[in-house]
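Case study 2.
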Amino acid sequence: MNMYIYDDKKDKTQIIEIDNSTIEKNPDLEFFNDNDIRKVWHSGEEEWYLSIIDVVRFLTDSKDPKQYIKKMRQRDEELSSKWGTICTPLQMLAPNGKMRKTQAANVEGILRIIQSISSPKAEPFKLWLAKVGAERLDEIAYPEKAMQRAVATYKSKGYSDKWITQRLRSIEIRKELTDEWQNSGISSSKDMLPLPIF
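Prediction:
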């Protein structure tokens, strides 16, 4: 199976072959088995970018997703005004087997686009976004709920109580360290480079 990585320094997408057993062992890579939506790892941004046209085709079953996108942008002026910010042209494998620049977006951008798609297939995503938004507002009001949710998530992924305790402690220590750096006037990662690592 192939994985695509966009190198922003070279402005080129590279193809890396991955053994299927690696994907089977790592549940975080399970979406590679979905060939309906092209995806590229953006090395500079350190996040996944997905083909917008593939997402729209998948969620709408449109025979002409380019026209669907055009009409969607006409209906949603706010989305249209931010389109240049949401979309990043990245090289992806085209149906003819050649690498072509394709409009892509990171997960945040894709979720914004999904909000404008009127299709039954998009509804579960919209409901999920509403649920996550409500949970986040709840966490802002009651910060301990964020920790409870993190513990529940780690447990559902099979991590041991010992590992979870160590992970939460390391997060706490890191926060204390970055708070101390901030109090000392260190505001960027460049300022942290000369600090010794023990």
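Residues 29-33 have pLDDT under 50 and may be disordered.
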